[in-house]
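Project standup — Tuesday

K.O.: blocked on the structure for the chain from last sprint. Re-posting the sequence here as requested.
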Amino acid sequence: MKFNELIKQRESCRSYSTKPVETEKLTALIESAILAPSACNSQPWHFVVVNDKEKASKMPSILQGSGINKFTDSVQAFIVVCETKAKLMAGATCDSQHYAQMDIGLTVAHLVLKATEIGLSTCIMGAFAEEPLKEFLSIPSEVKTRLVIAVGYAKEEKIREKKRKDFNDVCSFNQW
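H.V.: unblocked you, prediction finished:
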């Protein structure tokens, strides 16, 4: 599949079938994600894959705690993306940049695009109760959970039309 076709097919799914997600496919997602670039090759991420049927069935109650993410009831697998300490080159001045957060964005982009390529659907969630999630998955207290990605098979295969700002509203050449 050509890259632009892949990008156009990727969307945030909020209606999943109850078909289990194969461990091999989840592994492929992580393998693609860890190939993402990162500042000083620090790779400041750790992924917790939740695909055990019993454990995955308890995730929605944690993710829906603040009244959102209601679509997660039928999701069969989740990937929790954690930020680990970035080890940057000695002497690097990084006061104005949060490289780890950008690096996590890059790795998640790889992950969700790979999912689309192999027939899986995803939805990236950034709003959830972090402490109950960390407790449930035994994530160390000093680790930041950045995102949770719902992974599964879409109930419907119809792709929604993407609505984006006009090119000239988001890009200019040589000056703002």
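K.O.: great, moving the ticket to review. The first strand starts at residue 45 and ends at 50. The helical segments are 3-9, 23-33, 53-63, 99-117, 130-137, 167-170.
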